[in-house]
TrEMBL record:
Membrane-spanning segments: 12-29, 41-64
Annotated protein name in UniProt: DUF3311 domain-containing protein
Keywords: Membrane, Transmembrane, Transmembrane helix
Organism for this UniProt entry: Kushneria aurantia
Keyword Transmembrane helix: yes
Length: 88
């Protein structure tokens, strides 16, 4: 099982999750931030939405590039099973 790699053992994955989860929680924003509006939307809400999008992209990156199991070799990895001639 030399080819196995789990993201839970990688420090940069945990740092990324921690930073993004902190950005998603609006409880630490200053009190005056609730009155700042951009196109009628509170600034804190835009920050939370952007952080949620970044979290989704980060999770996709972790799953696609940092998580390697033995099934990747058996079943073709992220590309799925190899296409046979004539099949689509």
């Amino acid at each position: 099982m030399a080819g196995m790699s789990e993201p839970v053992r990688k420090r940069r994955v945990w740092i990324g999750f921690t930073l993004l989860f902190v950005l998603i929680n609006p409880w630490y924003f200053p009190a005056g931030m609730a009155t700042s509006l951009i196109f009628g939307i509170p600034l804190w809400a835009l920050i939370v939405l952007a952080a949620s999008l970044m979290l989704s992209v980060f999770i996709s990156w972790v799953v696609m590039t940092q998580w390697h199991t033995d099934s990747d070799e058996r079943y073709g990895g992220a590309n799925g099973p190899h296409d046979r001639e004539g099949e689509r």
